[in-house]
Amino acid sequence: QVQLVESGGRLVQPGGSLKLSCAVSGSIFGIRAMGWYRQAPGKQRELVATITTSGSTNYASSLKGRFTISRDNGKNTVYLQMNSLKPEDTAVYYCSYETWATGPYWGQGTQVTVSS
Which end of the chain is less congested by CB atoms within 10 angstroms, N or C? Predict the structure, then answer.
């Protein structure tokens, strides 16, 4: 069993920055990759970024350049640095993991609201 606890979501003004954190605990040895997804009101959940255990990253093409995913293996934590935030980035952001056979699985989510 893997537990994911997201934090860092809040209200931020357009153009601002925000860093989300995801603390991972439990049976983490079978995890192949971690990531972030988001779901805006009335829209489907979409991939934001993933990072594998070897450090390879993948981003939604529309977000590459503004968002950066990283991980601290010593702290079992995955981060999402978001810069130049726009109102359309408003969503619930979900930390995720996947194994070599299954997934993705998501945490409870953290709300990010971009508004003036």
Answer: N
